[in-house]
Design a protein that fits this description.
The protein has 251 residues and is an alpha/beta fold. The chain has a single domain, classed as Rossmann fold (3-Layer(aba) Sandwich), CATH 3.40.50.300. The protein is 36% helix and 26% strand. It is built from nine helices and ten strands. The strands form two sheets. The chain has a six-stranded mixed β-sheet with strand order 6-7-8-3-9-10, with helices on both faces. A hairpin with a 2-residue loop joins strand 4 and strand 5. Helix 5 runs parallel beside helix 6. The chain is globular.
């Protein structure tokens, strides 16, 4: 059974003459426990697909399903216990006046999970933060530490699927590898399924087994990461992306 499936997915914004088709006839499947990448230039529709899956965008049609359950336009609490998202900017995703303890306690409460005094230290430990971080506020944390808190919040309801929207692009280069390796370890330990959006092919090559390339809202090519690394691609657009990405040279 697929963890996430999209079939003929269309997503748009606006109506009539002002309508913009952001995603057009996108189809892909992500197996349980797999890590799947969506790559392409800014505005290609990558993040919009994640927003449609999470219910942040409701102007879509086609088919979406999670763990075999078809999705409608609305999401219930059970869905958000299964699917969570880590956003790009750790500075914007945490409430500036809420301590780490408040952020995690509120999330646990919303999902009906009791025993926060035991759960919160475990969540912090899982993301490499000690107990001293529990009562700090976002302004007292570095960018990498904030993103670790955001990952802990996403893990709080014990999801099966994590949607990762450029989770390291707002961080210093020195911190990016730490967060990516943390995510990789968490996926192995908790048998998580990842869908990762990135413009950086080296990140996707490190994190994913398969990748779909998007251009102008369409998936123009899907391949395994080994083929991407070796430059075995069929589309000129994919070849140009590879050539523009540090560490890759298309054959």
């Amino acid at each position: 059974m697929s963890a996430v499936s999209a079939k003929g997915l269309n997503v748009w914004f606006g109506d009539g003459a002002s309508r913009v088709d952001a995603v057009k006839d996108a189809s892909f499947e992500v197996a349980e426990g797999a890590s799947f990448g969506l790559v392409g230039e800014s505005g290609s529709g990558k993040s919009t697909i994640l927003k449609a899956i999470t219910g942040l965008v409701r102007t879509w049609d086609g088919g979406l399903s999670v763990l075999g359950t078809p999705l409608g336009k609305r999401r219930d609490r059970q869905f958000y216990s299964t699917v969570q998202m880590v956003f790009q900017d750790p500075y914007a995703s945490l409430h500036p006046r809420h301590s780490v303890d408040q952020v995690l306690s509120e999330t646990l409460h919303l999902h009906g999970i009791k025993g926060s005094n035991d759960a919160i230290p475990k969540l912090l430990s899982d993301v490499g933060l000690g107990p001293a971080f529990r009562f700090r506020y976002p302004h007292q944390l570095s960018g990498g530490q904030r993103q670790r808190v955001a990952i802990a919040r996403a893990l709080a309801p014990r999801p099966k699927v994590l949607l990762l929207d450029e989770p390291t692009s707002a961080l210093d280069v020195s911190v990016q590898a730490e967060i990516l390796n943390l995510l990789k370890d968490l996926r192995a330990e908790q048998n998580l399924t990842f869908i990762m959006v990135s413009h950086d092919l080296s990140v996707v090559g490190h994190m994913c087994e398969r990748v779909a390339v998007m251009q102008f809202g369409e998936i123009v090519e899907e391949m395994d990461v080994a083929a991407m690394r070796e430059g075995r691609v069929s589309q000129d657009y994919t070849r140009r992306l590879l050539e523009a990405s540090v560490g890759y040279t298309a054959a």
